[in-house]
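Contributing new records

If you add data, match the layout below exactly. Sequence lines come first and carry their own label; structure lines follow with theirs. Keep one chain per record. Anything else will be rejected by the validation script.
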Amino acid sequence: MRTITIPKGAKLIKSGSFGSYYKISNKKGIKVIWRSSYSLVRKEANYLNVAAKAKLAPRCHEIVKVKDENDVHYGLIVDHVEGRASSWGGKVMEPLKRQLIKSLKEIGIKNQDLYGDNVRKTKKGYMVVDFTPSQCSFIK
């Protein structure tokens, strides 16, 4: 596994409680996950790649170690998804949310963390960009 630093010129898109997401090119991004184990990061990569085959998520290309000023974290190099965070509020969005849950279930994934910041509306539809392992499971 290679160790990288966030490239100069990378654009911070979102920073939250568990990590940050940077756009590193027009086609790639890196999700830096703070204080996580390799096994949990690997699980998220697996969820992303299964969902990506069904065009429901960006593809994960690589797991890397990301070095910053203070520490080393794990990161996922993924396809960058242009789009805006979804607004799940109100009755209008409920059918869309139910459809996304159904589509994920059809490919064997249960994701209990579907809210606006974790779903992007793109030109091609909706994509799930976060599969936090504690909120997801593979189902049969």
